[in-house]
């Protein structure tokens, strides 16, 4: 169920960031609603982190405009920082401070003192399940615990918006699942979440997604809309032996637009379902045993691969 509100938490229009001759962000525009979990996808170097840093007031845009929580990202950067929480992709807390000391340190940075800081500290310890570790040095915690603590410190001042830059990179699957439960809980309280990730299973949890490639947004929509509307052709799931021989044969067929290995199966994109018989015949003729060949609903991985390849061909 979407949590999108009518009022905008983020607006971007024609945003550009260059470093010398290199364009990291190239004329991107979008709107994020209040209370929405908005996912920013893309390979390393696509421009995701640079965009977040501009929205957080850390980097000045080269061109374009935008607002965060109704504040201008060029003229009101200091005010923006008091209204948002930011969690970078690199663990940003202090290993030589205890869990509680880190919370208190960041609370004071955000102007949270006294009884309010005590309440927020208790809330963070409960939220992150760190009560029994509150006196432990942060450097002694496992990565999953560290990321929960970092999320708590980003929320110590009760921001209306959270920017999370690949928050679960390097975290085990169980810890990632727990972290996303915390994200959902924050969104249910009305906090807007702007999160970058390269995990497609995490992208499924977002209300809407933007896919960036070489500094540009090449797709925007809900996970369902992306899977239904951005695949050019029919996706076939192919299970065949030997699988690498099948991959090589499918790659050589004019009817197959894209093919990739997904687990023990192959996903091949063709023009339409009527071409499945031709694909099967080509594999049979090559002496490759076909166990299954049928149309399949694309995953976000399929959409990601297809859109990137389409963008590369267009470039």
3D architecture notes:
- This protein has 315 residues and is an alpha/beta fold.
- It folds into 2 domains: 215 residues, Rossmann fold (3-Layer(aba) Sandwich), CATH 3.40.50.300; 66 residues, Alpha-Beta Plaits (2-Layer Sandwich), CATH 3.30.70.980.
- It has 11 helices and 14 strands.
- The strands form 3 sheets. It has a 6-stranded mixed β-sheet with strand order 6-7-8-3-9-10, with helices on both faces. The chain has a 4-stranded antiparallel β-sheet with strand order 2-1-4-5, with helices on one face. Strands 12-13-11-14 form a 4-stranded antiparallel β-sheet, with helices on both faces.
- Helix 6 links the parallel strand 7 and strand 8.
- Helix 3 packs across helix 4, helix 3 packs parallel to helix 5 and helix 5 runs parallel beside helix 6.
- The radius of gyration is 23 Å and the shape is globular.
- The two termini are 36 Å apart.
């Amino acid at each position: 169920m979407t949590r999108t509100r009518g009022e905008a938490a983020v607006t971007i229009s024609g945003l550009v960031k260059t470093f010398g001759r290199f364009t990291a962000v190239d004329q991107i525009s979008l709107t994020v609603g209040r209370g929405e979990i908005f996912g920013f996808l893309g390979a390393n170097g696509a421009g995701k982190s640079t965009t977040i840093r501009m929205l957080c007031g850390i980097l000045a845009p080269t061109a374009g405009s935008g607002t965060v929580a109704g504040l201008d990202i060029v003229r009101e950067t200091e005010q923006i920082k008091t209204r948002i929480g930011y969690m970078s992709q690199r663990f940003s807390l202090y290993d030589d401070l205890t869990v509680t000391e880190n919370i208190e340190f960041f609370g004071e940075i955000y102007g949270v003192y006294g009884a309010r800081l005590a309440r927020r500290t208790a809330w963070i310890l409960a939220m992150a399940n760190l009560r029994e570790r509150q006196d432990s040095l942060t450097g002694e915690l496992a990565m999953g615990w560290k990321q929960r603590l970092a999320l708590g410190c980003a929320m110590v001042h009760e921001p209306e918006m959270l920017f999370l830059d690949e928050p679960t990179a390097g975290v085990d699957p169980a810890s990632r699942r727990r972290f996303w439960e915390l994200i959902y809980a924050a969104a249910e309280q009305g906090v807007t979440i702007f999160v970058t990730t390269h995990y497609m299973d995490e992208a499924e949890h977002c209300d809407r997604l933007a896919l960036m490639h070489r500094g540009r947004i090449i797709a925007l929509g809900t996970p369902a809309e992306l899977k239904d509307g951005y695949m050019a052709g029919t996706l076939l799931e192919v299970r065949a032996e030997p699988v690498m021989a099948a991959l090589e044969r499918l790659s050589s067929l004019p009817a197959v637009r894209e093919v990739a290995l997904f687990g023990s199966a192959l996903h091949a994109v063709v023009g339409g379902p009527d071409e499945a018989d031709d694909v099967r015949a080509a594999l049979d003729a090559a002496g490759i045993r076909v166990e299954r060949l049928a149309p399949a609903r694309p995953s976000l991985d399929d959409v990601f691969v297809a859109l990137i390849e389409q963008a590369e061909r267009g470039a």
